[in-house]
Structures are given as C-alpha cells and as structure tokens.
C-alpha cells in the first residue's frame, strides 16, 4: 500500500526502534527522565530558545501555548485555514475560553498589513483584547506553503510594536528550513513560542515539542499537567525524537523532491487539475476533473489499487510524501493515477 494521506502515518525505522529500546528512562513528571531531558535540551538549542518541553501531540502543543499566552475573554489572530482554527476541535474556546479571529491569507500566509487592521483598539472595552498572533509554517492547507522569512520578521516587528506575543505552529518547520537551506533559528528568533512535531516527516511515533523562554515553558509545564499531558517513563518516546532529529532532518529534501515529481506528473493527466509551482515542500493538493467522477469515488478507486490519498472537501484531494514513500512508490502511483484519470 502506498499511503499518501499524511506524513503522520510514518512508522519507526528499525534503527529508531533500537534506539528506543536502549533508552534510559525515569519519571518525567518529576523531571527525572534523562532521555527526555536530553531531547528538551537538544530542541531548545536547535530552535535557539532557553527551554523546551515534550508533549504528546501537535494539537496539545498549540493549545498549551494559547493557554499560556492568554486569559479568558482574549482574542487570538489566526489564519482562516490554519490547523488551530480548523483541526483542533474548537479547543481554544473550550480550554482557554478565547475567541479566534480568522484572517484569510494568501495560501495560508498572513501579511503585516492585514494583521494590523485586525488588532483591536485597547481603549474600546466593547472589544476583546488581541492577546496573541499565530502563524503556521509550513502551512498545511495552503499546500505546504513556506512562510517567507522577511514576512515573519515584519510580523514580529508588528507584534512587538503592539506588545502582542507571536506564536508559530511549526509542526513542519523543518520542512521549511530544509527547503530554504536555512537554520531553524533564522525563523524562531522572531517568535515568542514555537512548536515542532516529531511524528510527521521526522518519523517518530509520538510527540511534539514546545520551545520558548524558561518562564514560559514552566507555565506550559503546569498546564501540560492540567491537560493530562504529564507522562512518566517516556524516555522511549524521547529517544525516537532524538534519533529523528539526528538522522531524519536532511532527508526531508527527498520528500520534497518526490512531491514535486508527483505534482509534475499529475499535471499531465487530463482528469486532474494541479499547479506544480505551488508545491514547495511535501504536500500536494489537486482536484479531480474527470467527467463522471467525484473525489469520493476517486479515493475509493485509488484504494482498490493500493494508493491512499485524503479527501479534503469538494473535488479537492491531498497527497503527502514522507519517510515511508520511496521513488518506486511515486512512479507506481503515477502509473495508477494515469490509468484512472487519463
């Protein structure tokens, strides 16, 4: 089976599993798991922050950051198609009692001018105070879009001007940095908090990281316990994260290359609509345009031929390249797409 639904479907490699079995563990709630401590030190250094913390999922990571940055009744600026707004089950309202203010970006990218217009007037008590700005890099629903560095810098300057923290949902941040050939710190220096997912393209089975100041991370640590995210002997999971960061970062370029190859091939198939120029990293969005076909039927027929893709909405489908998809898989998938939609 060629599973292109998401990079979350990756499975630990044999060498990653060996690293997990060798891990030294302790009680992380007491701060006594040496492997977790090592991972947190490693990620803090990687992202140029004072501290970091391991949490079970990317959704929890974002929600802990929102909780730590805000108070009930505050407003958070997000992009209309961001993960925080669409894919976290209304958690910001339920857990932090904040209101999300969605702005429509350009393929997920927000610009300073539109953000500034959305910042509430602090003097008007009818309005919720703008307490946080969130950006997503890369932007999933934008098609794996990379935030331009200069735009992040300008948003950071705007946020500082208004004394509003800037949070980056960096679940796929390393896809952006590998594609651009820059150090992660080039992005993270401009944000107050940042998340990083270990279980997508990096191939670990579980976990995300949050990085920020020591004071911020200690606040997050308390809320992690409150949200049920404090775990005990999790060095086995941390070991997978360490292995992923040591061995699976540079290879993200292979995922990007394969995604581009697939996109270019799909463009040549009459029953598929796609713009390969929009494929910047490992995520591909395309539409089924063959007469008599809809997206649901396309997913079912592809599955019969052992290719899995994700239906987003309407005619829109998504394919994501990752650690468990090789060059032969891509070529086979191209043939199957051609047979069905040519």
Detailed description of the structure:
- By secondary structure, the protein is α/β, with parallel strands linked by helices.
- The protein has two domains: 14-247, Type I PLP-dependent aspartate aminotransferase-like (Major domain) (Aspartate Aminotransferase, domain 2), CATH 3.40.640.10; 251-341, Aspartate Aminotransferase, domain 1, CATH 3.90.1150.
- 42% of the residues lie in helices and 17% in strands.
- The chain is built from 14 helices and 13 strands.
- It has helices at residues 14-22, 34-47, 58-69, 83-86, 91-96, 112-118, 149-161, 173-180, 185-188, 214-226, 235-247, 252-267, 295-304, 327-341; strands at residues 2-3, 51-55, 75-79, 99-103, 130-136, 166-169, 193-197, 208-212, 272-273, 283-288, 307-308, 310-313, 316-320.
- A seven-stranded mixed sheet has the order 2-8-7-6-5-3-4, with helices on both faces. A four-stranded antiparallel sheet has the order 9-10-13-12.
- Helix 2 (34-47) packs parallel to helix 11 and helix 3 (58-69) packs across helix 10.
- The protein is globular, with a radius of gyration of 20 Å.
- It starts with a strand and ends with a helix.
- The model has no long low-confidence stretch (mean pLDDT 97).
- Its cofactor is pyridoxal 5'-phosphate.
- One of its GO terms (molecular function) is L-allo-threonine aldolase activity.
- This is Low-specificity L-threonine aldolase.
- Keywords: Lyase, Pyridoxal phosphate.
- Belongs to the threonine aldolase family.
């Amino acid at each position: 089976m060629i599973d292109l639904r998401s990079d979350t479907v990756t499975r630990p490699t044999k060498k990653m599993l060996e690293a997990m079995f060798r891990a030294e563990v302790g009680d992380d709630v007491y701060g006594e798991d040496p492997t977790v401590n090592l991972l947190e030190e490693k990620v803090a250094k990687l992202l140029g922050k004072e501290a970091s913390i391991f949490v079970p999922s990317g959704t929890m990571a974002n929600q802990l950051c929102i909780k730590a940055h805000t108070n009930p009744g505050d407003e958070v600026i997000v992009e209309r198609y961001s993960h925080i707004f669409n894919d976290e089950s209304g958690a910001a309202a339920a857990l932090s009692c904040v209101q999300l203010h969605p702005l429509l970006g350009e393929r997920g990218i927000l610009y300073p001018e539109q953000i500034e217009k959305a910042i509430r007037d602090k003097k008007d008590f009818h309005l919720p105070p703008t307490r946080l700005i969130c950006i997503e890099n890369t932007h999933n629903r934008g098609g794996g879009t990379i935030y331009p560095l200069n735009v992040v810098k300008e948003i950071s300057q705007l946020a500082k001007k208004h004394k509003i923290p800037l949070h980056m949902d960096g679940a796929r941040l390393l896809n952006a940095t590998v594609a651009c050939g820059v150090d992660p710190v080039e992005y993270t220096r401009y944000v107050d908090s940042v998340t990083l997912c270990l279980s997508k393209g990096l191939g670990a089975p579980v976990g995300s990281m949050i990085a920020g100041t020591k004071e911020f991370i200690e606040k997050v640590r308390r809320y992690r316990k409150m949200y049920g995210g404090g775990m005990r002997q999790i060095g086995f999971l941390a070991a997978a994260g360490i292995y992923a960061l040591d061995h699976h970062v540079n290879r993200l370029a292979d995922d990007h290359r394969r995604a581009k190859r697939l996109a270019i091939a799909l463009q040549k198939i009459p029953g598929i609509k796609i713009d390969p120029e929009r494929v910047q990293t490992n995520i591909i969005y395309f539409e089924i345009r063959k007469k008599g076909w809809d997206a649901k039927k396309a997913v079912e027929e592809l599955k019969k031929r052992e290719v899995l893709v994700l239906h987003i909405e309407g005619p829109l489908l998504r394919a994501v390249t990752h650690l468990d998809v090789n060059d032969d898989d891509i070529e086979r998938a191209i043939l199957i797409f051609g047979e069905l939609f040519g």
